[in-house]
Design goal:
This protein is an alpha/beta fold. The protein is built from ten helices and nine strands. Helices cover 40% and strands 14% of the residues.
Length: 282
């Protein structure tokens, strides 16, 4: 699939590391013009990855133009710059991937309001704001794709009795923000239905060991609970070229790939990823 997105203008949020960086690299390899955004420009105090590092992996691998936009998605005024700056640099946006997320794990019984507001701003309000901003030009052209990266934590924990698992007990509010994002995805798909804009959500079926996820949950995961970054990227890419009939849905990455009989490719888009759906720790 050479230059699958040649000439397409794309925004990817949360692109300094992990899934967002992988999606950005794949878009670049497929010929897209890509605006990447996150807070970390040069270095994070505790995690690897930055916008500049992602940009380095993108430059020269495809035919497109790329730009990095530093912005804080928790700040409504700051995130309002993203679409105008990306449009000025690349042209009207064809594809928006809302990948960025704030993940603060803590029992809801003592979860402070400040953190709850931060999580909702980044995980729900920011994706909606950006979707609204790109939709105007997409409507004019009669075509566009919006993909929201969600999480299986949106599903209720089974019980009672509830398992004595501290991770499950602390991930609930993060999951609540993702459940809200899933519902917003569905209603955006409904709202834009008939305009040519497709809006969908995708979540890993297993865990993707991004740097942040490795720190938060890596030690408790077995190999069969780990999904390759490439598989999650492939599922996201698939929703960025889907037909008009697929909108308003929330998909599990591996289930979607099975449905489409889609091969997982390497991030440079040149060959089949050797690990397929699975990966192992380095």
């Amino acid at each position: 699939m050479p230059d699958l997105f040649s000439g397409r203008n794309v925004i990817v949020t949360g692109a300094s590391r992990g899934i967002g960086a992988g999606i950005s690299q794949r878009f670049a390899a497929e010929g897209a013009n890509v605006a990447i955004t996150a807070r970390t420009v040069d270095a994070h105090p505790t995690l690897p990855g930055s916008l500049n590092e992602t940009l380095e992996t993108m430059v020269g691998v495809g035919s497109g133009k790329h730009v990095a936009i530093s912005a804080d998605l928790s700040d409504a005024e700051d995130r309002a710059r993203i679409v105008p700056e990306a449009t000025a640099a690349l042209g009207p946006i064809d594809i928006l991937v809302n990948n960025a997320a704030a993940a603060i794990y803590q029992p809801l019984s003592d979860y402070p309001l400040k953190r709850r507001r931060l999580m909702m701003e980044v995980n729900l309000q920011a994706p909606i704001d950006l979707a609204q901003q790109v939709a105007a030009s997409m409507r004019k052209r009669g075509e566009g794709w919006i993909v929201n990266v969600s999480s299986a934590s949106a599903v209720h924990a089974p019980g009672p009795p509830f398992a004595e698992d501290p991770f499950v007990a602390t991930i609930g509010y993060y999951g609540a923000t993702k459940a809200a994002l899933n519902r917003a995805t569905n209603t955006l798909g409904h709202s834009f239905y008939g305009t040519g804009i497709r809006v969908n959500a995708v979540e890993p079926r297993a865990s993707v060991l991004s740097p942040g996820a490795e720190v938060l949950a890596g030690a408790r995961l077995t190999e069969d609970q780990i999904e390759s970054l490439e598989a999650m990227v492939e599922a996201t890419i698939a929703l960025c070229e889907c037909g008009l009939e697929r909108t308003g849905g929330c998909y599990s990455s591996l289930d979607l790939l099975d449905e489409l009989s889609r091969t997982v490719m390497t991030l440079d888009g040149k060959s089949e990823y050797p690990g397929g759906y699975r990966t192992t720790r380095q």
